[in-house]
């Protein structure tokens, strides 16, 4: 599970806009809007991919750029010499606040 960070002293945190549960392992994640992160199309053709959300993945406020949809999430999980690694996660219990 990964919840959005919250500063207990000031009561300030990122405005969380929803949560979901990842289907394969049952982990719950919060997400918020992110500065629009766009990947250029791959060399073999295609279109730009937008990642307008940030999904918190760790207890210390670590997050990943993602595109949260109704039943799946496209999330950037790493980077190689050849570009970004984008995974597709199936989700359930998607709630928007």
Shape: globular
Pick out the low-confidence regions: 7-11
**Helix proportion:** under 10%
Number of strands: 6
Beta-strand percentage? over 45%
Q: What is the end-to-end distance?
A: 18 Å
What's the rounded overall pLDDT mean? 81
Individual helix count: 0
Secondary-structure content class: mainly beta
**Total count of domains:** 1
| Largest sheet geometry | 6 strands, antiparallel, barrel
Order of helices and strands: EEEEEE
Instruction: Order the strands across the largest sheet as they lie in space.
Output: 1-2-3-4-5-6
Rg computed from alpha carbons, rounded to a whole number of angstroms: 14 Å
Notes on the protein architecture:
It contains no helices and six strands. It is mainly beta and 97 residues long. The chain has one domain (16-96). Strands 1-2-3-4-5-6 form a six-stranded antiparallel barrel.
